[in-house]
Write a structure and sequence with these properties.
Elements (H helix, E strand, L loop, with lengths): L2 H21 L3 H7 L2 E3 L7 E3 L3 E2 L4 E3 L5 E7 L2 E7 L4 E6 L2 E7 L6 E5 L4 E8 L8 E8 L4 E3 L7 E7 L1 H4 L24 H8 L2 E7 L26 E3 L2 E5 L9 E5 L2 H4 L7 H19 L4 E6 L3 H16 L5 E6 L15 H19 L2
Parallel strand pairs: 13-14, 13-17, 17-18, 18-19
Antiparallel strand pairs: 1-11, 2-5, 3-4, 4-11, 5-10, 5-12, 6-9, 6-11, 7-8, 7-10, 15-16
C-alpha cells in the first residue's frame, strides 16, 4: 500500500473517532440525565413535626407536618403513597399549588427550572383523614440536594382540636355541603400563623372533634379516648409508635381544648374537666420540665372560659408559676368557615392576640 492510501486510511479513522466522541455522552453528561431516586431518610431532607422515618418511608398523620429540601434539578417528582391527604407546595417561599393525592398515583411532578430551589411541602389535613406516607424524591433528569439553612431556634408545641387543625378555615361559609378535605389548611391556623410571626418552629398535636375529657357528640360526660390519650404518639392511629418526647423540647406549649367537651350534651362536670386538663399538663411537664404553658379559651362559651381560667389558677397554686391564661375573641359570623369554625381571616386575628400574649412572657 503506497503512502497516499495510508494517509487516506488514517484520515478516515480520525473522522470516525471524532464522530464517535462527539455523539457518545460522557459519564458526566450521562449522570446529568439519569433518573435519581432519593430515599426519604436522606440527611438533606428535613421533616418538621412528628414523623417516623426509615430508608423505605416517612409516615405521619398530624396536621402541618412539613417536608423540605433544597435542590438543583430542572424537575423533581414528589413520591407519596396516600390518597387521603392534601399538601401545600411552596417553592422558594412562594405558594404554588395544592397537591391533592390520589390512591392510584405515586409520583407528583414539579417543574423547577434552572438553579437551586427550596421546596417545602406542608400537610394541610389533620389526622382525622388518616396517615400519609412520603417515599422520597425522584430527579428524572438528574440533580443534587444541598444543605438547608439552620432550623429556627425557637419552638412551640400546640395541643388542640379543630381550631388548631384548621378545620374548614378555607370554606366558602358555614355550610360546606358535607365536604371538608379541600377546605382544611393547617398552614393557616392561629397556631401556625402565630408561630411564624414569632419565628418559631411548631408542632401541632391536635385532633378535630376531640376534647380534654369528652369528644364531640359522645352520649356520655366523658370519653374513653379524648385528646390526651393520643398525646405521646408519633401517629394518632398507631399505638406501636411512641413519640420520643425528648427529641424535640419546645420553649412553650399552647393548649386550646374544651370546645368539644362542652358543645353538646352531656357536658362533663367542672371538676372532671379541670382534672382532665391538669392530667394533660402533667404529661407535658413530665416530658419537658418547667416549660411555660398557655391555656387558651375564647369568648364563645363563658362557662368553658371560666373552667380554663380556674385550671390555670389551680396550676399556679401547685407551684406551676409558668401557667398562663389567654382568652381570644371568638370570630363574628361573617368570619366563619365550615360548620361555624374560624375562617382564615378569623384565624389571623386570633394569631395576633396570641402573639401579643406570648411575647412579653417569653421576651421574644
Amino acid at each position: 500500500m503506497n503512502s497516499i492510501w495510508l494517509h487516506r486510511l488514517f484520515f478516515c479513522v480520525l473522522i470516525f473517532l471524532s464522530a464517535c466522541s462527539s455523539q457518545a455522552p460522557t459519564s458526566t453528561e450521562k449522570a446529568a440525565t439519569e433518573r435519581v431516586v432519593i430515599a426519604p431518610n436522606h440527611p438533606q431532607i428535613r421533616y418538621t413535626g412528628r414523623v417516623a422515618v426509615s430508608a423505605e418511608a416517612a409516615v405521619y398523620d398530624w396536621a402541618n407536618v412539613q417536608i423540605e429540601l433544597k435542590v438543583k434539578a430542572p424537575q423533581i417528582e414528589l413520591l407519596f403513597e396516600d390518597g387521603r391527604n392534601d399538601y401545600n407546595l411552596f417553592i422558594d417561599g412562594n405558594w404554588q399549588k395544592v397537591i391533592v393525592t390520589a390512591k392510584e398515583q405515586q409520583a407528583y411532578p414539579v417543574d423547577l427550572g434552572e438553579g437551586e430551589h427550596r421546596v417545602l411541602i406542608t400537610k394541610r389535613t389533620g389526622p382525622n383523614f388518616g396517615s400519609g406516607t412520603f417515599l422520597g424524591v425522584a430527579l428524572p433528569q438528574g440533580g443534587k440536594l444541598f444543605n438547608l439553612p439552620p432550623r429556627p431556634s425557637r419552638k412551640i408545641e400546640f395541643i388542640g382540636d379543630s381550631y388548631t387543625v384548621g378545620y374548614g378555615n378555607e370554606g366558602p361559609g358555614v355550610d360546606c355541603g358535607g365536604v371538608y378535605r379541600p377546605y382544611e389548611n393547617s398552614y393557616l391556623t392561629f397556631a401556625t400563623i402565630a408561630a411564624r410571626e414569632l419565628n418559631a418552629e411548631s408542632h401541632l398535636t391536635a385532633i378535630s372533634g376531640y376534647g380534654a375529657v369528652r369528644n364531640y357528640g359522645d352520649p356520655n360526660p366523658t370519653s374513653d379516648t379524648p385528646m390526651p390519650f393520643y398525646y405521646a404518639r408519633t401517629l394518632m392511629e398507631r399505638d406501636d409508635l411512641p413519640w420520643d418526647l425528648a427529641s424535640w423540647k419546645p420553649d412553650a406549649v399552647v393548649v386550646k381544648l374544651g370546645a368539644n367537651d362542652h358543645s353538646t350534651q352531656p357536658e362533663p362536670p367542672a371538676d372532671v374537666f379541670i382534672a382532665g386538663l391538669q392530667g394533660l399538663l402533667e404529661q407535658v411537664h413530665s416530658a419537658y420540665g418547667d416549660v411555660p404553658v398557655f391555656l387558651v379559651a375564647d369568648t364563645f362559651r363563658k362557662q368553658l372560659a371560666e373552667r380554663v381560667e380556674r385550671t390555670t389558677a389551680l396550676e399556679r397554686d401547685k407551684g406551676n408559676n409558668q401557667a398562663y391564661y389567654v382568652v381570644l375573641k371568638h370570630p363574628s359570623r361573617d368570619q366563619l368557615g365550615c360548620d361555624s369554625h374560624p375562617s382564615v381571616a378569623a384565624q389571623e386575628i386570633m394569631a395576633v392576640e396570641l402573639v401579643d400574649a406570648i411575647k412579653p412572657v417569653l421576651n421574644w
